[in-house]
Write a structure and sequence with these properties.
By secondary structure, this protein is mostly helical. It contains eight helices and two strands. The two termini are about 35 Å apart.
Length: about 170
């Protein structure tokens, strides 16, 4: 079941766990075989090359070991650093946007209902939308904000950090 961002925010706001995937009963209960409990984790649908592109954008040169870095051309290193910087900035802005939308949802639920608080609600929602700041580093975890790898990949594709045909890429050409 694919949810829009408002539904995702409502799930986060209500602090209700959302179990998705092919085996939600495993996510809730695990499995019990031979008296041992364990959870079968599903593998992502990304190919090895798609994971390489994603991790290289996300981790930059830290993704490579020292031996590979010594063999790598300086221009490629510079390009990887540049893409990594764009990716980190994008995630930071994404986290700030998520916090802003969660706060808006909270303000609406807290202040928009009572007669005594309508003035406060009018103030919060009549002001301009809070902008994001590239200089501010959001230190909240992605998991706390409900941001998944799929969300990040979609954002990277739309911003040109990952190729537009990322989902169709099978191997390096």
């Amino acid at each position: 079941m694919k949810m829009n961002s408002l539904q995702e925010l409502e799930v986060l706001h209500n602090n209700m766990p959302q179990y998705e995937g092919a085996l939600p009963e495993y996510q809730l209960d695990g499995s019990n075989q031979n008296g041992k409990r364990y959870v079968d984790y599903l593998q992502e649908d990304f190919t090895a090359y798609q994971n390489l592109l994603y991790k290289r954008a996300l981790y930059g040169l830290q993704y490579y070991d020292k031996k590979d870095l010594k063999k790598m051309h300086w221009e490629k290193k510079r390009r990887i650093k540049r893409v990594n910087k764009r990716a980190q900035d994008s995630i930071n802005i994404f986290k700030q946007e998520r916090v802003n939308s969660l706060c808006d949802l909270m303000y609406k639920s807290m202040f928009a209902t009572g007669k005594d608080t309508q003035g406060v609600a009018k103030y919060f929602f009549s002001t301009e939308v809070i902008d994001t700041d590239i200089e501010f580093i959001n230190t909240l975890d992605l998991k706390v904000l409900g941001i998944t790898k799929g969300h990040i990949v979609e954002r990277f594709v739309t911003e040109g950090i990952l190729p537009k045909d990322f989902y169709e890429v099978k191997e390096a050409v």
